[in-house]
Each structure stands twice: as C-alpha cells, then as structure tokens.
C-alpha cells in the first residue's frame, strides 16, 4: 500500500508540484457545480435548486452535479473556498482509491503484490482513466467499481450479510453518479453475480443458502439509489434529453482504428491536440496503458490462451463486449444493446465503454503478471497466435492506409521506431522473467517492470496535454471570488443583489468562453446561460439556452433577439460576450443596448428596459393553447408590466378579466434563497403576483401559510393569485412533497404511453 501511494505521488507531480490543473469540462462545468453544492451547504442552504444558471435549474436532479458523491462532497466542504487545485486533488485521490481497490482485489484473488501493483497502475493512469480526467463524475464512479466488485465477491463466497450491505452501499454510490460508465459497471457487477451463481457446483443449493445475502445486497442498493434515481426521473420528462435516438447516440461511435493507440500511443499525433488527425475526440481515442502491459497481453496472454482460463474468462468476455459497445455503429452489437437493453437509450457516447475495457486490461495485466511471476510456462497455441496476428495486421494495414490517404504516413513511420524499441525491451524483460527458475529473480524483475510502467505512464499519460493545462491560463477561476476579476466585480456590484432597485437582476453571459459558462454559480451572479447538456425543456423552448460556453446562445420563436418583452422579463440587465452585439443578436438595434464596460476581451452591454424580478399584474390575457403558442412564437401583444399571460384562470376566483377591484398593488422581495423566496404584498385589489423565475412544477406557493395554485405565468415564469390585503407570499421548492411525488409518477406514466 505504501509503495502504491508513493507511485501515485510520483505520477501526480504535474498537479501537486507543477502548477497544472485538469482542463476542459473539469473546470468549465464540474468544478463550479461541486463548488456551488459545497458552498451552499456551508452557508446552511440546500443546493437542490440553483438560481445562478439558465434562469434557475434543478441541481439535485442533474446526475452530473455530484451531489450524491459522498467522498468528493465531504472533501469539498473542508476548505472555506475550495480551489481548482483542491478539486483536482479530490479527483486524483479517487484514482488512488480505485487503484487501492484493485490492489485489494489482487489480494482477494491471491495474486502476488507485485502483480497487484502492476494492475493498480494501469487502472489508475492507463488509457481512458488518464485521457478523460476532464469528465470528473466518470472518474468518481470509476473509482468505486473495484470496491463494489470486491464486496460482491466476498458477499457471494462468505455468505456474510455485512459484505452484502457493503456491496449495496458501494455499488449504490457508484450507480448514483448515473453516468454511462456507472451504468455499464452496474451491468458488469450483475453479470459477475450471475456468472458466480452459474459456476457453482450446485446452483440450487447455492441460491438456497445465499438468498438472504442477495436480498440484503439488493435492498441496500435500492435504498442508496432511491433518492437520486427519483430526482432524475422527476427531471427527465421535463428536460431536453429524456433519451437519445439511435442515430444521435451512434454519432460518437469509436473508430476501431483508435485501438492502435494501445500499441503506438502517438499514432494519430495524440500528443498534440492541434496536429491530431484521428477523427474522433482526441480524449476518447487514447488507450495507451504502457508498453509492458500491452506486450504482456499481446505476447503472453493471448497466444498462450491464458486469458481464456476459467478464472479470467468472465472478464475476457466483458472486455470483448465493452469493445463492441464502444465502436457503436461499426458492428450490430450496439444496435442490439440500444433496442433491447433497458437504459442504453438514456446515453450517448458509446466510447464510455472504454473505461470498462481499461478495467479489464488492468485485471488482465495483474492476472498475467501473477502467472508469469509464479513460474508458469508459456506454451504458444498456434490458433490463438494466428488469430491475434491477423487482427493486428488488418488493424495496422487500415491505419497505414488512412495515414497514406491523409499524407501522414511518413510521420507515422517516424514515430513508430520508439514503440518498437520499447516493445522489444519489454518482450526481452518478460521473457527473462518467464525463463528464470529463481522466484527471487522473478520478483525483482517484476518490480523492475512496475518501475518501468510507472515511468512510462509518468512520461506519456500523467501530465499530458489531455489532462493538464497551466493554472494561470484560467484567470477567472484562479483569481477566485468577485473583487479580483474586473468583469465579475462589475457584475456583482451592478446586479442589485440587495434588491433595492427591483433586483436581483441577471446577466446574459454567452460566447464568453468555457470559463464563464458556469462560473456565475461560484461568483453569486445570476445568469441566463450555462454549460450543461441537460436543461429544462421549457426554458430551452421559450428563452433559448446554450449547451456549452464555447457557443453563443440560440434564440427562439418567442424570443428571436435581445429586442423583446421576454428579454426584459428575464431581468437581463447586462449582456456579456467576447463577440459583437450584432453577431449575438442581429435583429436588435445597437441603440437599444449601451456599452457599459470593456475589460479582458469581454464587453458588457446594459439593458435599460430591464423589468423587476417581481411584477403585480392586474389584467389577464388568456392563452388556452400555451404549448402551441410557445412552438409557434405567438407572443401576446400586451403590456407585461400590468398584464399577465395565463393558460387558464386561477382556481381562486370566477371568470372576471380584468381582475376585480381598484387601487394599487405593491410588492417587496424580502428573502431570496436557493429553495425559498419570500415576498411581502400590500394589495388594494386582486392581482397576479409574477415572480420572474423559471416555472418548474415542483415549486409550490403559499399565501399567508395557505397553499395556492402555482401558475405558469408569461409562458415560463411563476405566478400566484393574491386578494386584497397585506399578505406574505412564499415560494418553496419541494420535490419530495406528496403532490411532487404524484406529479412525478403521472409524468412518467405519460412518457411511457
């Protein structure tokens, strides 16, 4: 264990000692998200609703919010202001924990500790684990798998309830991340359980003696998963991605040529993101696990048939199926999985299965190294050898053909001499281990292999351009809270967070770069945009929402530009972008918005027509077919300062339009928290109080403590009917309320029909 931690520290030197951070989505999306969750909890608030992106967002229902990743969240709660480096340290710790889990599995499988270290290093920094560190929730889920597999094996073999509970908890936490990797690993665990049962000498007796253990594991897992799954199911029917079509899912299928990076890591110029020519996403097509492990598998494990041994056969088939899944449309397997395996259609990006492949490669290297160190002799089986050589010859021939077609062949051949040299050295070293009759010599040479692997991964995988960038390049996130960054400082001072001028107002931050997309949730700036593939469908349809910070926001039929009522109702006081106003919104007259600030390549335009967060409407415009109006862009031609658009009249009065009574209605925003908003209303007549926050059916509203109907006002905002008098209006986000549970069930039933 001490040796593994020392090797981990060596591999982590770029992050711990080199002022480097994990780039891309790690800092654009996941660091701000977990920071918001942890800082909300530190402030005594629930993070279930996030008011800082997309005009309001159900954070607890987003599988990528990491609310249900207990270790990560607990560590984020420790410092008062967790930095990027602290966040990266948490991710690297998870990789270490995954490696420790592999080492414990090696002990469980009675492998030598040297073999366990070998497997642990591959699991920790091999292939996808190193290349896709930007996808933090995947890494978190990935780290729990070895412990779940260990607990499952112990539960099935020892028939102890405590191991069943351990398995249920660990597997439940892994599955609660709800990324495709956790889904696939869940299938692997289910398959392992079925395989163990089927492999028993007396299956009926095995089940009869272990049904309590199996039941306890299942019940515990369901209990751990119940809340996160419920919240996600609550959001899915209301989101932009309740599922993916087959055509959409296979767009990101992994090109089979990508497996060449197992043998030649730089085949497609993977070391340079600007010169890369592999076609698919560079981080999804890098699988290098080190030259010694791949030579061990290719020259020892496959030709000898050892990987087909009964002890490893299950994992071999898991690896084969993971490869078939990852290459998506290139074989019929993914089509069958998509159409017949429940849950596959909830995900895109089949290459996520390469994390499963990487886990199998790690286990394979440990299994083979243990056999080699034990003195087991290799006997080549001609059929296996010829099959392997045929596949490799076809794969390299295909790769050379593509390289020649693109004019890259000379560069490919130039880059191959080093892998060939290292492979020759690795082969000689492994052959020497296998040929030695001395156990001590074999173990010492095995340790040499471990050190060579650590050096190999340290040079090529840890600290590469795929998983590191300079911390100084992320100026907004590195300078910390508002007050240090000029743009953040300007917005924080001008958006009226004290609510004295009708605020809090919002900023439209679009086309400003990935750093700015989700950082408002760390800076306390309420924004109308963000960075998330999963958004509220109503908001997307009415206001328009960008998927990432690298693109400008799309406009909609109801909001075709920055010139319109919805733009003002959203409370957008400032538009922030690196692009010109005419590029962002061609239809808006330049005179409508005025340049208020310019710094660091970003411009801020001020909207003089912004409306307050709370409006009291005394007239109603009925739009019975609200959905059709949203799709067709049928915006009611009314004065939204006095009139509200509703689909139906509130239940609390008759058919009167305009509302009964005369006199004024004054509103005041008393408290604005994540999950609770309190207004004071002084009304001399009936009115519809409109809160210009996103309508979401799991919000509820109370007037003087009594629940009232939550109205969908002005297409996408919240409203409530109040009568004459002095009243307190309270909006509360209650996803677990009785009506919330009933509404969730009703929407899911409607979706399934």
Describe the protein's architecture and organization.
The chain has 753 residues and is α+β, with helices and mostly antiparallel strands. The protein has 3 domains: 2-12 and 24-462, no CATH class; 475-606, no CATH class; 614-752, no CATH class. The chain is built from 28 helices and 17 strands. The strands form 5 sheets. It has a 5-stranded antiparallel β-sheet, with no helix packed on it. The longest helix has 33 residues, at 203-235. The protein is elongated and about 100 Å long. The mean pLDDT is 91.
Q: Could you write a compact summary of the structure shown?
A:
With 753 residues, the protein is α+β, with helices and mostly antiparallel strands. The protein contains 28 helices and 17 strands. The longest helix has 33 residues, at 203-235.
List the helices and strands and how they pair.
Blueprint: H1 2-11, H2 13-16, E1 20-21, H3 25-42, H4 70-76, H5 84-108, H6 113-125, H7 128-131, H8 136-158, H9 161-176, H10 180-198, H11 203-235, H12 246-249, H13 291-301, H14 313-326, H15 332-340, H16 354-373, H17 382-405, H18 409-435, H19 439-460, E2 469-470, H20 475-479, H21 486-494, E3 506-509, H22 514-518, H23 520-523, H24 537-542, H25 565-569, E4 572-577, H26 581-584, E5 594-599, E6 602-606, E7 614-617, E8 619-622, H27 626-632, E9 643-646, E10 665-672, E11 676-683, E12 687-694, E13 699-703, E14 706-708, E15 711-713, E16 717-722, E17 725-733, H28 738-752
Helix pairs in contact: 1-6, 3-4, 5-6, 5-8, 6-16, 6-19, 8-9, 8-10, 9-10, 9-11, 11-28, 13-16, 13-18, 14-16, 18-19
């Amino acid at each position: 264990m001490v040796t593994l931690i020392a090797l981990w520290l060596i591999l982590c030197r770029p992050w711990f000692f080199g002022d480097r951070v994990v780039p891309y989505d790690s800092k654009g999306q996941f660091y701000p998200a977990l920071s918001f969750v942890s800082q909300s909890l530190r402030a005594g608030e629930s993070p279930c609703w996030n008011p800082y992106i997309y005009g309001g967002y159900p954070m607890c229902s987003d599988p990528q919010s990491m609310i249900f990743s207990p270790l990560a969240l607990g560590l984020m709660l420790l410092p008062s202001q967790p930095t990027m480096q602290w966040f990266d340290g948490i991710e690297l710790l998870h990789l270490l924990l995954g490696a420790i889990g592999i080492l414990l599995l090696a002990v469980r499988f009675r492998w030598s500790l040297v073999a366990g270290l070998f497997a642990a290093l591959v699991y920790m920094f091999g292939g996808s684990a190193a290349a896709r560190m930007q996808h933090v929730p995947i890494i978190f889920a990935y780290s729990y798998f070895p412990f779940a597999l260990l607990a499952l094996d112990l539960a099935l073999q020892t028939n102890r309830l405590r191991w069943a509970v351990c398995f249920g908890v660990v597997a439940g936490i892994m599955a609660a991340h709800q990324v495709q990797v956790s889904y696939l690993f869940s299938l692997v665990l289910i398959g392992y359980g079925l395989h163990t049962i089927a492999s028993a000498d007396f299956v009926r007796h095995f089940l009869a003696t272990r049904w309590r253990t199996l039941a306890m594991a299942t019940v515990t897992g369901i209990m751990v998963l119940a809340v996160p799954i419920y919240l996600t199911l609550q959001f899915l029917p209301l989101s932009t991605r309740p599922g993916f079509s087959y055509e959409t899912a296979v767009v990101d299928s992994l090109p089979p040529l990508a497996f060449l990076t197992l043998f030649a890591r730089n085949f497609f110029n993977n070391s340079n993101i600007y010169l890369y020519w592999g076609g698919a996403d560079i981080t999804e097509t890098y699988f290098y696990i080190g030259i010694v492990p791949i030579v061990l598998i290719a020259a020892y494990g496959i030709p000898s048939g050892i990987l087909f041994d009964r002890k490893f056969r299950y994992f071999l088939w898991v690896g084969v199926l993971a490869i078939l899944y990852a290459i998506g449309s290139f074989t019929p397997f993914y089509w069958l999985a998509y159409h017949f395996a429940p849950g596959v259609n909830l995900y895109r990006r089949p290459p996520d299965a390469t994390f499963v492949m990487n886990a199998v490669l790690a286990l394979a290297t440990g299994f083979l190294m243990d056999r080699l160190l034990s003195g087991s002799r290799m006997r080549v089986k001609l059929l296996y050898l010829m099959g392997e050589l045929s596949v490799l010859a076809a794969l390299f021939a295909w790769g050379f053909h593509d390289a020649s077609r693109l004019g890259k062949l000379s560069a490919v051949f130039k880059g191959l001499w080093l892998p060939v040299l290292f492979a020759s050295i690795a082969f000689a070293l492994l052959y020497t281990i296998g040929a030695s009759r001395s156990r001590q010599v074999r173990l010492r040479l095995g340790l040499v292999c471990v050190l060579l692997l650590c050096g190999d991964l340290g040079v090529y995988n840890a600290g590469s351009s795929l998983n590191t960038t300079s911390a100084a390049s992320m100026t907004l996130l590195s300078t910390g809270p508002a007050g240090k960054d000029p743009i953040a400082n300007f917005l924080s001072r001008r958006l009226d967070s004290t609510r004295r001028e009708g605020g809090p107002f919002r900023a439209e931050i679009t086309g400003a770069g990935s750093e700015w997309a989700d950082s408002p949730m760390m800076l306390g700036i309420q924004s109308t945009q963000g960075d998330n593939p999963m958004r509220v469908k109503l908001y997307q349809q009415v206001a328009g929402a960008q998927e990432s910070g690298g693109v400008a926001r799309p406009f909609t039929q109801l909001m075709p530009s920055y010139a319109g009522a919805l733009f003002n109702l959203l409370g957008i006081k400032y538009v922030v972008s690196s692009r010109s106003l005419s590029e962002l919104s061609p239809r808006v007259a330049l005179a409508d918005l005025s340049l208020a600030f310019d710094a660091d390549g970003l411009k801020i335009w001020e909207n003089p027509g912004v409306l307050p967060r709370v409006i009291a409407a005394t007239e109603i415009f009925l739009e019975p077919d609200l959905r059709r109006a949203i799709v067709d862009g049928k915006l009611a031609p009314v004065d939204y300062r006095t009139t509200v658009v509703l689909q139906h009249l509130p239940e609390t009065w008759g058919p009167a339009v305009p509302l009964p009574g005369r006199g004024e209605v004054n509103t005041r925003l008393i408290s604005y928290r994540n999950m609770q908003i309190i207004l004071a209303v002084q009304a001399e007549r009936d009115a519809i109080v409109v809160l210009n926050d996103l309508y979401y059916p799991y919000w509820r509203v109370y007037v003087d403590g009594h629940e009232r109907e939550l109205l969908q006002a002005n297409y996408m905002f919240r409203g409530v009917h109040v009568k004459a008098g002095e009243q307190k209006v309270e909006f509360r986000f209650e996803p677990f309320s009785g009506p919330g549970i009933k509404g969730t069930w009703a929407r899911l039933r409607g979706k399934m029909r």
